[in-house]
Amino acid sequence: MNAPVSKITSKAQTVIPKAVRDKLGLKPGDLVRYVFEGKRVVIERARTEAEDDPFATFTEWSSEADEKAYRSL
After folding, report:
1. Collapsing DSSP states into helix, strand and coil, what is residue 67?
2. Closest to 25 in 3D by CA, of 7, 51, 6, 54
3. Are 30 and 16 contacting, i.e. CB atoms less than 8 angstroms apart?
4. C-alpha angle with apex 13: 7 to 14, nearest 5 degrees?
């Protein structure tokens, strides 16, 4: 099995190989998380704040008019 490999630079930087970016669906600006599992480290796509916010999908009800209409509830 040919696992993707990348080199660490003198500034401790590396490039995430294209095969890994594609598999995780990573795009420029995305965050990755490093999960420690014993002597191994798993790299995974980090969830954004919007993905963690259960109310983020209800943005159609977050206008100024809605805030004013429901303020007294």
Report:
1. helix
2. 51
3. no
4. 40
Which 8-state DSSP code applies to residue 55?
A: T
Give 7-63 pLDDT, tens digit per residue: 999 999 999 999 999 999 999 989 999 999 999 999 999 887 655 566 666 666 667
How many CA within 13 A on the CB side of residue 16? 20
DSSP secondary structure string for all residues of 1-55: ---------TTS--PPPHHHHHHHT--TT--EEEEEETTEEEEEEPPPHHHH-TT
Domain-wise residue ranges, the chain:
18-70
State how far the alpha carbon of 33 is from the alpha carbons of 28, 41, 44, in Å. 15, 10, 5
pLDDT at 66 over 60: yes
Residue 32: DSSP 8-state: E
**What local confidence, expressed as pLDDT, does residue 27 receive?**
92
Amino acid at 12: A
